[in-house]
Amino acid sequence: MTSDRQSLDAIELGAYFSLIETSSLLKHAVEQQLKDAGDLSYVQFQLLATLGDAGDGSMRMTDLADGVVYSRSGLTYQAQVLEQRGLVTRSPSADDERSVEVALTDAGREVLAAVFLGHIAVLGDLFFAPLDRSDIESLARILGLVREHMRQNPPRSAAPRAKSRGTR
Amino acid sequence: MTSDRQSLDAIELGAYFSLIETSSLLKHAVEQQLKDAGDLSYVQFQLLATLGDAGDGSMRMTDLADGVVYSRSGLTYQAQVLEQRGLVTRSPSADDERSVEVALTDAGREVLAAVFLGHIAVLGDLFFAPLDRSDIESLARILGLVREHMRQNPPRSAAPRAKSRGTR
DNA sequence: TATTGTTATACTCTATAACTATA
DNA sequence: TATAGTTATAGAGTATAACAATA
Fold first, then answer.
1. Which sequence spans correspond to the domains of chain B?
2. Do A126 and B153 lie within an 8 Å CB cutoff?
3. Which residue of B has its CA nearest to A37?
């Protein structure tokens, strides 16, 4: 609604469709591998990996949600699943008693490790194989621009506004 | 399992994560728009758009499935939904009586049209805005390479092997 | 009053397997 | 026997709204 574009040209359409198709196929393949190697969904892997990147392997629920992008209740659901499997723990935060700290357990790190090599292999075979070095660098730069832009312009997605809930 | 990669460097990781994040955010934003403008899920939009691209607006179920990639039953499900809404029709194929021809109705074309401008606006604002012409061309070329590669190397995903169904 | 998180619930979607029918 | 599609069913995931507790 803020754009005055009326159409996309063939190149733009190609870029868009290729993005959707490649990311979809890649995600599908990776999900299969994650499920086989560690019985993880992609979201669960992302959560574990995000925790793994976080120095002490611990984050507040809210911070963990950022970048994995969905509703609070969805995060609670996944956190429960991961906790029941012993891959993370949840405990009240010391400084802010409203918060919950989610921490990676040793078992969680093990699953992450068990899954990682296969994950990389899939990426190498399916995604990077047809690209040379400069392609990869270009891709990283360009998609990095898009990512930055998107982060700065959140699609006001979770508009707290009540919807009209149309014909149904 | 066919790759001997052991790790990815920072650039590669960046490209991968950016791809996942941008496509995820983009898809999410587009889904919101599609839902608001035409009460369509992304898959439903893809199916309608695929039919719209097909000259006479008609395709066999199997051909329609290609590129939208999922199980036959999933396609049947969505085709039923679209048919009930009057956006497509299903009829037995003339030449091969096993096949079903899915055809876009006028109502289907209308919904597609109703949704299209907003769709393009979201893409323009969220995806193409930070890119210049050469970026878009590079992106189209590189992702096109990946897409071609993936199509030629299907991730033998649905390994027909029975799973061990681990600890649960 | 705003923020953090949980719960209950309903719904959408996807996958599996068994099945029918045609080639 | 292989291909095209449907059905039944079960499960995972997500979103919404109402709620409780802390800041």
1. 13-159
2. yes
3. B166
Q: Using the beta-carbon criterion (under 8 Å), do B149 and A130 form an inter-chain contact?
A: yes
Got the DSSP string for B71-133?
-HHHHHHHHHHHHHTTSEEEEE-SS-TT-EEEEE-HHHHHHHHHHHHHHHHHIIIIIITT--H
Q: Which tens digits make up the pLDDT trace of B124-152?
A: 999 999 999 999 999 999 999 999 999 88
d(CA B85, CA B100): 18
Q: Would you place residue B158 in the very low, low, confident or very high pLDDT band (cuts 50, 70, 90)?
A: very low
Pairing of strands A58-60, A100-104: antiparallel
pLDDT for position A161: 29
As a rounded value in angstroms, the CA-to-C1' distance for B161 and D12 is: 21
Predicted structure pTM score = 0.88
The predicted-structure confidence for A114-129, as pLDDT tens digits, reads as follows 999 999 999 999 999 9
Look up residue A47 and give its amino acid: L
Q: Residue A143: list chain B partners with CB under 8 A.
A: 15, 18-19, 22, 139
Read off the pLDDT of residues B8-45 as tens digits, 9 standing for 90 and up. Answer: 999 999 999 999 999 999 999 999 999 999 999 999 99
Interface test with A, best of B1, B13, B46, B147 (most A CBs within 10 A): B147
CATH number, domain A13-159, options 3.40.50.10540, 3.40.50.1400, 3.40.190.10, 1.10.10.10: 1.10.10.10
Does A58 touch chain B if contact means CB atoms closer than 8 Å? no
